[in-house]
């Protein structure tokens, strides 16, 4: 059973800033990024408390607009407070984030969207700054359907005066989840899930209770675990429609896939067949599952070409797989892989959340004992990762207290 999506809950926690009062989110994952986000909200003057699978956030009438705080630098998603702070306080200072080593992640589309709505923005002293007297609606066309820019623009537009039409918007299920919560709060939004979203601003929003959408990336990760280890894994807690293309790719690789209303089962009986991939915005193949796809290709029969179209440095972990004997050649944003029957153990280092999971699965396909280092990356996105693997019968042990 997977929990709520990391890439949704962090934005929903940020959306809570838009309404004075107490917002409660259910189905939250037990991951370090949620704990970082609690610190960010506390730094802005809110009270936030995690209790089991829920987080309760109490937002005062006056919140701080200054998010130049250490907790913000810890992870990329904290930039999603920019839109809400600009909307609520008319002034925002947000420390430029760190996060995964998967490529440069500029904020130009976030900034130009807010500027179209009347804000003045700049990068100054390691922070992004936005100032505005009053946000107004605007026609905004994104150069690329950026998830983060779509979210920040939406969270500013809901309290802006007039109509905002956002074209070439991102269509990810996490954006739809955010829109559902904003609508419950009283926002007037149409078109979520399509590439044009229309928002009519309202003067005030109300706090709500909301259940976070299931994590399709975590679910997809377990699907790849089954395919790599010739296993049989059933995953619940997500809408399989959100993984349509991913599950189709696994069928092409030779897996039997059954879908249910809230989950799926992947059975891989023989060695997987090589499949080509290219990452694209939703509903294309998710870049976040690209490391898992690559890991599977390294042990599949035949040759695969994987093309990464979203983040330029996301092949960094391929070198680690090569240390395990994988036959992989990087050429720009393509990687060509000739599958091997088995990998060989080696010490390896994870560079981001998903690469970390891919390396652990590669270790399960290698002889001997593979040591994966820097596993704090995995803690950022996968609740109970080692426990779940052990329940599935893998021999995996956590040997450092990185948590
Ligand atoms: C989110 C997800 C991440 C996922 C990604 C793409 C979260 C916390 N993270 O990241 O897991 O891999 O979507 O599905 O939800 N870009 C610009 N200018 C901008 C904004 C983005 O050039 O103003 C570029 C980025 O550098 C990147 C591409 O657009 O190359 C996609 O970025 P974006 O969709 O914004 O990803 P994130 O929101 O950062």
From TrEMBL:
It is an enzyme of class 2 (transferase). It is found in: Cytoplasm. Its EC number is 2.5.1.7. InterPro entries: Enolpyruvate_Tfrase_dom, Enolpyruvate_Tfrase_sf, MurA_subfamily, RNA3'P_cycl/enolpyr_Trfase_a/b, UDP_GlcNAc_COvinyl_MurA. One of its GO terms (molecular function) is UDP-N-acetylglucosamine 1-carboxyvinyltransferase activity. UDP-N-acetyl-alpha-D-glucosamine binds at residues 76, 288, 310. This is UDP-N-acetylglucosamine 1-carboxyvinyltransferase. It catalyses: phosphoenolpyruvate + UDP-N-acetyl-alpha-D-glucosamine = UDP-N-acetyl-3-O-(1-carboxyvinyl)-alpha-D-glucosamine + phosphate. Pathway: Cell wall biogenesis; peptidoglycan biosynthesis. SUPFAM superfamilies: EPT/RTPC-like (SSF55205). CDD domains: UdpNAET. One of its GO terms (biological process) is cell wall organization. Keywords: Cell cycle, Cell division, Cell shape, Cell wall biogenesis/degradation, Cytoplasm, Peptidoglycan synthesis, Transferase. The gene is murA. It comes from the Bacteria. Belongs to the EPSP synthase family. MurA subfamily. Gene3D superfamilies: Enolpyruvate transferase domain. GO terms for cellular component: cytoplasm. The lineage of its organism: Bacteria, Bacillati, Actinomycetota, Actinomycetes, Mycobacteriales. It comes from Corynebacterium variabile.
């Amino acid at each position: 059973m997977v929990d709520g999506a990391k890439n949704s809950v962090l934005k929903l926690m940020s959306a809570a800033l838009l309404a004075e009062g107490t917002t409660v989110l259910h189905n939250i994952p037990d991951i370090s990024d949620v704990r970082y986000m609690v610190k960010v909200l506390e730094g802005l003057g809110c009270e936030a408390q995690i209790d089991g699978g829920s987080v309760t956030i109490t937002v005062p009438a006056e919140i701080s607009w200054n998010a130049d705080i250490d907790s913000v630098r810890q992870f990329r998603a904290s930039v999603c407070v920019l839109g809400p702070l600009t909307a609520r306080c008319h002034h925002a200072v947000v420390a430029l984030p760190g996060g995964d080593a998967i490529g440069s992640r500029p904020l130009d589309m976030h900034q130009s969207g807010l500027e179209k709505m009347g804000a003045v923005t700049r990068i100054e002293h390691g922070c992004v700054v936005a100032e505005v007297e009053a946000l107004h609606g605007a026609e905004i066309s994104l150069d690329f359907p950026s998830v983060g820019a779509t979210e920040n623009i939406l969270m500013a537009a809901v309290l802006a005066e007039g109509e905002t039409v956002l074209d070439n918007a991102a269509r990810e299920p996490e954006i739809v989840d955010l829109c559902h919560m904003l609508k419950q709060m009283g926002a007037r939004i149409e078109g979520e899930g399509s590439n044009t979203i229309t928002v009519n601003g309202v003067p005030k929003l109300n706090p709500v209770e909301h259940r976070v959408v299931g994590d399709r990336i975590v679910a997809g990760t377990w699907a790849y675990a089954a395919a790599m280890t010739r296993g049989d894994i059933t995953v619940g807690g997500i809408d399989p429609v959100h993984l349509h293309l991913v599950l189709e790719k696994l069928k092409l690789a030779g897996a039997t896939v059954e879908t249910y209303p809230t989950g799926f089962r992947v059975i891989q009986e023989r060695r997987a067949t090589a499949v080509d991939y290219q990452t694209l915005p939703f509903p294309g193949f998710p870049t976040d599952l690209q490391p898992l796809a690559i890991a599977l290709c390294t042990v599949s029969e035949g040759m695969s070409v994987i093309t990464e179209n979203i983040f330029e440095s996301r092949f960094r972990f391929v070198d680690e797989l090569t240390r395990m004997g994988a036959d992989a050649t990087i050429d720009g944003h393509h990687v060509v892989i000739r599958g091997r029957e088995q990998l060989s153990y080696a010490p390896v280092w994870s560079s981001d959340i998903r690469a970390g999971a891919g390396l652990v699965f590669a270790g399960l396909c290698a002889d001997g004992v593979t040591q994966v280092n820097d596993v704090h990356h995995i803690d950022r996105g996968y609740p109970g990762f080692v426990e779940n693997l052990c329940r599935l019968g893998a021999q995996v042990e956590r040997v450092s207290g990185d948590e």
